[in-house]
Specification:
Layout lengths: L1 H25 L36 H8 L10 H11 L11 E2 L2 E5 H11 L3 E2 L2 E2 H4 L3 H7 L3 E3 L11 H4 L11 H21 L2 H22 L4 H13 L1 H14 L12 H24 L1 H9 L3 E5 L2 H39 L32 E3 L4 E3 L5 E3 L9 H10 L3 H10 L6 E5 L4 E4 L21 H7 L3 E8 L9 H14 L6 E7 L3 E2 L5 E2 L4 E2 L8 E2 L2 H12 L10 H14 L4 E8 L14 E4 L5 E4 L8 H14 L6 E6 L6 H8 L5 E3 L6 H4 L1 H10 L6 E2 L3 E2 L6 E10 L6 E10 H9 L7 E6 L4 E3 L19 H4 L5 H10 L5 E5 L4 E6 L2 E6 L3 E8 L4 E8 H4 E5 L9 E2 L30 E4 L18 H8 L18 H8 L2 H6 L3 H6 E8 L3 E5 L14 H8 L5 E2 L3 E2 L6 E10 L32 E2 L2 E2 L4 E10 H13 L9 E6 L2 E10 ...
Parallel strand pairs: 2-5, 12-13, 12-18, 18-21, 21-22, 35-36
Antiparallel strand pairs: 1-2, 3-4, 6-34, 7-8, 9-11, 10-11, 10-26, 13-16, 13-17, 14-15, 19-20, 23-25, 24-25, 25-26, 27-28, 27-33, 29-32, 30-31, 32-33, 36-38, 37-38, 37-44, 39-41, 40-41, 41-44, 42-43, 45-46, 46-47, 46-52, 48-49, 49-53, 50-51, 51-52
Helix pairs in contact: 1-8, 1-11, 3-4, 4-6, 9-11, 14-15, 18-19, 20-21, 21-22, 35-37
Length: 1379
């Protein structure tokens, strides 16, 4: 034993001196380095870098981040090897550990010398259709056109090609020699083995962990939350991580542990006692701190109005408002389309028009290039909070896709004549403040949009490409629902000359041209063959995706998944595609569609594949009687056979005959492939590169456009705006020439889905709400839908029953069919009626007496309006405005205040002397007010006028009666005004612990104390703390630990419902459960409202939720202090001796309904901005065996669901960023986008309260056979809350060098949340399974006959006869001449 201790001690001392030496070697560097492109994380070694390898020793980026970022940068056309290398080196600035010196506030500072070198290498490349040397005269001009800030290297810090930069190290991370690594590793191994042999591992490791945690905790509390200081702290911790270990080990020998042994008896009673104390403390906080009971008394004492609601009347009123909303936008779009028709026809028929030779010859008034290298003059540009960018409100801009020929006379002409649209754009914007972008996308790809805005740029300053012809609004206007099968030739010959990559790009382009109304299957076609040795290689066609026997709706999840599957395809197999065509016709037949159908065959047209035989071969003997193998004949595939086969398949096909297009991705010429397309009303197209695919596929797109018989406006499904305005809906109108009926393009007018949501929400009350569905029964607007701000791609729309009912029933399905019918009506559901609440990203269902649906179609739009009322909503009760109230102040909002309203500067923190902190203030959601905003989000009245109206005593009730607030808003504000004095009167200790106190009402108001600025987008009724309270009315509920919106600290929220005034006792009361409001009760379970208040069932109508924020540090101290007042001198986190050479701990955790940790001592050391490291962390990550035992008792239930609109992260070590800055000050080069859209399978847990009650309200078990630790745990609910206390007594952790069993246990029970590779399977199955929903699908559009794209093809027999005749004729002529 002494030898081991001595060895460990000497090792620790050696390690200390080695690390001290390493530290001293670092001391020469004094510049703080951090990764500003990655939200200021610290750099570290990345030995696996495959690009930017000169930063391996110390890098800001990971290889997967390089892949994600570099992959979006398209190479310059015609770039030399030197140019590509320079561009690659420039892109590698994101990996440089000292990037904070030259990438600041989304701007890149570049040295002029590097610009000159870059220009010299790339001046012969093509950019925007021109040679770079013709566009820019030197490197500085070229860099400045990328929006770089060019500096002199001798004067400023700037990015440069410099040897010292390539080999730079980081002050934040030491790079010890291999000797240091070996010694440190050996020391750790020796220490671990010593501890294991001595059977006292917990004593030493627990001591080290506790001392380190204590140090970390102290440091984290002392460091302020400024980003620079946090990064300094991170760097300090990175450099001194090993030093922590060394000092702790030294202290281990110097210091003893003074603690008494734990009393192992009565663990259960001790835990229950602590749970009771915690319950008392939490309810005391709710009473004394939150003042929820006082708020309830205020509403109990209020006078109330009762209003019987006529659902049909409300529905029709909202219907008229929405139809007017849609109709107005459609009329404006039609105006633009008519104007374009006039401008085009006038331009074409005017013989005096001269088309300029180039776009440069057009004036600035006519052609403002969205890709302009020069910044637009300041007099034209203004920052708009509506458009979240600097825009030109008096002019449009033109965007031309990168791969469109800018010298095409038609392109130049379109830019010229379309400039006259600006006047109409401006007029429309003035007529309708709800519209956002207005634009025209021409069939050539020219995109003129208003208001004018510079194109987005990537991280090295090149403009992002945009082709209107691939956008949802354009596609929706140019084609109705269509069904398609794409046959991809994946035979081995496709490997040659980039054929395979061109085929993949072509397939993706076709997929992107489809929308939710279309259906698609893709077949990867290949056939078997024999090798020269006679071995049969089994290959056959397969349908990509989950559903193999019918076409699948082209949802966004389907698209994403198909892209992933296509990326993984390999060229292999033979080129016999006859089986694939049989499958294609079978898929179309099974889909039973009368809609226009297509088969697109993408191939190289090669009639043979190298080294492939179509026969197995055989053996024979030579003259010496020796056996040898004769390979089979090489395969020669005759596409003539395919032509004949398709003729036969068409005869058997029962639906509308499909149109067949053949796309060649090679230079092969084959008349039979052309015949295959032309005999089936299609054409043969050739794709020579992935450059400008819409042009190369013009035959297909022209056919789609020409076959569309409708010239009417269409409405797109909501999609994510390319310019960052969230979910958009577009009314799109196809445009045709009046004289020639030639298709010209598509007009679009946008509005945000938020605008539509606000209109719908304005007419809600109580728990009632309205929603909008499309013709396919997809929810378009619904309060349970994910917020558009949380989306990273176009949304995946759910069927309405996935949001309205827990389980689809025949009754609701019948209701859904009526909702999307063309009649106004209503339907009441009484069997298993339920109301949903959004909690932890899930819908929590609670029973209600009935749900009454009212529905109607919206004329002029492909949508339907539905109103959902519960029983409590049909007799609406709202408070009267009291005459006795305290003056209320309105929070000036940073998105509302502007130059027009200079009340308070909201770009700076609140000034304590301004008085904002001394009062409670009112925050109001936009939907709590009438239309008070103009087109730049500036209020028509300022904050002081709002206050005056809010505090007025004029008897005006609600918007319809001439007020500026919703019904009940002023009453709520005046009733809650009495809380301010109560909150101020709290004792000093309470005030210190509490960060904020507030009450949010169902009318959309929020009173907060002390006053602070809150973003206008903040809606308290959608927050977790609000909905948690709704699920457990009357209980004090606790949120997860999360990052607060005000100052960014870790906080916990306690909340409690406040109900409408105490109801009158009914004449007769039920005697069992779910008694009526006002009936006598003894506990919450007696009441239908689930809240027994003063021995009477509370009103079911919740008027609001009161909340209280505690800083997490203060909350942790509070819990620890509560347990210290318990029995036997035991308390949470207490360390004590529990046996010979064993040190144990009493661990305490607070857990929510989802088995996620609310309280864990390790969260104290996590910086505030690393929310992924403390938010929604599962108990299983700490103690898998506890979760295992709770599952065995049926107390914990595993759940799995698929999230089709999930957000994945490329890296989990990038700090979250809460943006409190003025968005108008952002630079042109955006930082790393860590999040991306994906499909996730989420595995979660849920606590079964019924099962816990059956076990006496607690679970007591030993951690026997636990490979991780030993001890006894008690799991018990904290009474009248949503929180559970887990206490582990005599906790002793087993630690060995490689405890694989422990890691395995945790990996099994930790709930997974992972990206799935075939995530659309579940959604596709639902779509197919419920397709009686064929009843809900749009009717197929009328199709115009289209002139064949091919010349007439003479039949094979006719061709042979013609050939014989011509041959005979030529012979006769020859004979006659010879004579």
């Amino acid at each position: 034993m002494k030898i081991n201790r001595t060895a460990v001690f000497l090792c620790a001392v050696a390690q200390f001196f080695i690390l001290s030496a390493v530290k001293s070697s670092e001391s020469g560097s004094t510049v703080l380095q951090y990764c500003s492109f990655f939200n200021n994380r610290a750099p570290k070694p990345q030995p696996d870098l495959k690009n930017c390898t000169w930063y391996k020793e110390n890098s800001c980026c990971l290889q997967r981040e390089i892949d994600a970022t570099f992959g979006k940068v398209k190479p310059l056309q015609g770039a030399s090897k030197d140019c590509s290398d320079y561009i690659n080196y420039l892109m590698c600035y994101i990996c440089a550990p000292n990037q904070n010196l030259y990438y600041r506030i989304e701007r890149l500072y570049v040295c002029e010398g590097f610009c000159d070198s870059l220009y010299s290498a790339c001046n012969s490349a093509i950019l925007k259709g021109s040679v770079i040397r013709d566009l820019y005269s030197n490197g500085k001009e070229f860099c400045e056109s990328r929006r770089f800030i060019v500096r002199n290297a001798s004067a400023e810090s700037c990015f440069d090609l410099h040897e010292s930069l390539v080999k730079s190290g980081s002050i934040c991370h030491s790079n010890p020699s291999i000797i240091v690594v070996i010694i440190t590793t050996f020391c750790g191994f020796l220490l671990t083995q010593f501890i294991s042999v001595a059977n006292s591992s917990e004593s030493h490791f627990q001591f080290f962990n506790r001392r380190k945690a204590s140090c970390d905790r102290q440091s984290s509390l002392e460091i302020s939350n400024s980003r620079e200081k946090e990064e300094t702290f991170l760097c300090f911790k990175t450099r001194t991580k090993s030093l922590y270990c060394t000092l702790s080990l030294l202290l281990l020998f110097i210091c003893g542990i003074s603690a008494n042994g734990a009393d192992e008896a009565n663990f259960a009673s001790r835990a229950e006692h602590w749970a009771e104390l915690l319950s008392q403390e939490l309810h005391s906080l709710a009473d004394k701190g939150l003042k929820a009971n006082d708020a309830q008394k205020l509403y109990d004492n209020a006078e109330y109005h009762t209003k019987t609601i006529n659902g049909t009347s409300i529905l029709l009123k909202l219907k008229n408002k929405l139809e007017s909303f849609f109709q107005k936008k459609k009329e404006l779009a039609v105006k633009i389309a008519e104007r374009i028709t006039f401008l085009y026809d006038d331009w074409v028929n005017d013989k005096n028009n001269t088309i300029p030779k180039s776009l440069k010859d057009l004036s600035f008034e006519v052609f403002k290039d969205a890709d302009s290298d020069k910044v637009f003059p300041r007099e034209f540009v203004k920052y708009s909070r509506v458009f979240k960018a600097e825009v030109m409100m008096n002019s449009s801009v033109v965007k031309i896709p990168e791969k469109v020929n800018r010298n095409n006379p038609e392109v130049i002409g379109t830019v010229a004549w379309s400039a006259a649209l600006d006047k109409l754009f401006i007029q429309n914007a003035q007529e309708d403040e709800d519209i956002r972008w207005q634009y025209f996308g021409s069939k050539l790809g020219v995109h003129r949009s208003f208001p004018g805005k510079e194109s987005k740029r990537n991280f090295i300053g090149f403009q992002q490409d945009y082709d209107p012809r691939t956008r949802p609004w354009y596609i929706a206007a140019t084609s109705g629902p269509k069904h398609m099968v794409i046959i991809m030739d994946v035979s081995s010959s496709m490997e040659e000359n980039h054929r395979f990559s061109r085929m993949k790009a072509t397939t993706k382009a076709l997929i992107n041209s489809m929308t939710m109304q279309d259906r698609l299957s893709i077949i990867a076609s290949k056939s078997f063959y024999y090798t020269k040795d006679g071995k049969k290689m089994e290959h056959s066609p397969k349908v990509l995706g989950c559903v193999k026997d019918t076409l699948v709706p082209v949802s966004n999840s389907h698209k994403r998944e198909l892209f992933a599957v296509i990326a993984g395809l390999k060229a292999e197999g033979g080129s016999d595609h006859r089986v694939a065509f049989q499958m294609a016709f079978s898929l179309l037949n099974n889909s039973k569609s009368g809609c226009q159908s297509f088969i697109v065959f993408i191939t190289d047209g090669d009639d043979k594949d190298r080294d492939q035989r179509c026969k197995p071969g055989y053996y024979r003997y030579d003259s010496e009687n020796k056996r040898y193998f004769v390979p089979g004949d090489f395969c020669i595939y005759h596409y003539r056979k395919l032509v004949v086969q398709v003729r036969g398949l068409k005869e058997e096909y029962t639906q509308q005959k499909p149109i067949l297009f053949t796309i060649l991705v090679s230079s092969v010429k084959d008349a039979d492939l052309q015949r295959l397309a032309c005999e089936n009303d299609g054409s043969l197209m050739r794709v020579n590169s992935d450059y400008n695919l819409p042009e190369q596929l013009s035959d297909y797109f022209s056919h789609i456009e020409a076959s569309s018989a409708s010239h009417q406006a269409v409405w797109s499904s909501p999609y994510l705006d390319h310019d960052g305005l969230g979910l958009m809906v577009t009314v799109a109108v196809p445009v045709y020439s009046y004289f020639t009926d030639q298709f010209l393009g598509v007009v679009g007018i946008d509005f945000t889905l938020v605008t539509l949501e606000e209109l719908v929400l304005l007419e809600t009350w109580g728990t009632a709400y309205a929603f909008i569905v499309d013709v396919d029964a997809h929810a378009v607007v619904h309060p349970s839908m994910k917020s558009s701000t949380d989306l990273k791609d176009d949304p995946i729309f759910l069927k309405i029953w996935e949001l309205e009912v827990n389980h689809l029933t025949e009754e609701f399905f019948a209701a859904a069919l009526m909702m999307v019918g063309n009649e106004t009506g209503d339907y009441r559901i009484t069997n298993n009626a339920q109301r949903a609440y959004h909690v932890h990203g899930e819908l929590i269902w609670k029973p209600t007496e009935y749900i009454h649906y009212f529905f109607t179609p919206l004329e002029g739009a492909d949508f339907f309006l539905v109103l959902n009322l519960a029983k409590v909503d049909e007799t609406f009760r709202y408070p009267e405005e009291p005459t006795n109230f305290v003056y209320s102040r309105v929070i000036p909002d940073k998105h509302v205040i502007s130059a027009k309203n200079p009340v308070i500067s909201l770009l700076d923190p609140p000034d304590p002397t301004s008085g904002l902190k001394n009062y409670s203030y009112i925050h109001m959601t936009k939907w709590s007010m009438c239309n008070l905003f103009d087109d730049d989000m500036e209020m028509h009245i300022n904050a002081s006028q709002l206050e005056q109206n809010l505090n007025a005593v004029d008897g005006v009730q609600g918007c319809p009666e001439g007020g500026i607030f919703r019904v009940g808003v002023r009453a709520d504000v005046k009733i809650t005004s009495r809380l301010e004095s109560l909150w101020k009167a709290r004792n000093t200790e309470l005030q210190r612990q509490i960060s904020s106190t507030y009450i949010a009402t169902a009318t959309g108001t929020m009173r907060i104390f002390p006053g602070d600025q809150i973003p206008s987008s903040y809606d308290p009724t959608r927050r977790l703390w609000y909905n948690l309270a709704l699920v457990r009315p009357g209980s004090v509920v606790m949120s997860n630990i999360y990052r607060g919106i005000k100052e960014g600290h870790k906080i916990i929220t306690l909340s409690k419902t406040v109900h409408s005034g105490k109801p009158t006792k009914p004449a007769e009361c039920n005697t069992g459960k779910r008694r009526q409001d006002g009936c006598p009760c003894t506990n919450n379970a007696d009441c239908g409202s689930e809240y027994c208040y003063n021995q009477s069932c509370a009103n079911s109508d919740v008027v609001g939720v009161a909340g209280l924020d505690l800083l997490y540090v203060e909350f942790f101290k509070m819990v620890q202090n509560i347990t210290k007042t318990g029995l036997n001198s035991d308390f949470c986190d207490r360390i004590y001796s529990c046996g010979t050479n064993k040190t144990c701990t009493t661990l305490c955790y607070l857990v929510n309904d989802e088995v996620q940790l609310i309280l864990d001592s390790s969260f104290l050391t996590v910086p505030d901005y690393f929310e992924t490291r403390y938010g929604e962390i599962s108990l299983a990550e700490r103690h898998g065996s506890v979760v295992q035992k709770l599952m065995q008792k049926k107390v914990v239930i595993p759940l799995t669901r698929t999230d089709f609109d999930a957000v994945c992260q490329r890296s989990n070590d990038i700090p979250e960023k809460t943006d409190f800055e003025d968005p108008s000050k952002r630079g042109p080069l955006p930082p790393f986008q860590n999040e991306y859209a994906c499909i996730k399978a989420r595995q979660k847990y849920h606590i079964n309260g019924t099962a816990l009650a059956e076990h006496g309200g607690k679970i007591v078990a030993n951690l026997d056979n636990d490979p991780c630790a030993d001890g006894t745990f008690v799991f018990v609910i904290i009474p009248n809350t949503n929180t559970y206390l887990l206490t582990i007594f005599n906790y002793w952790e087993r630690k060995t060098v490689f405890n694989w069993n422990c890691h395995l246990l945790k990996s099994v029970f930790v709930p997974k949340s992972f990206e799935v590779t075939e995530g659309f399977c579940e959604q596709s199955d639902v779509a197919v399974r419920h397709n009686p929903i064929q009843l809900l699908t749009k009717e197929c559009p009328v199709i115009k006959p289209v002139k064949p794209l091919c010349p007439a093809i003479i039949s094979t027999a006719s061709t042979l006869l013609s050939s014989l005749f011509m041959s005979l004729l030529m012979n006769l002529i020859w004979i006659s001449l010879s004579n």
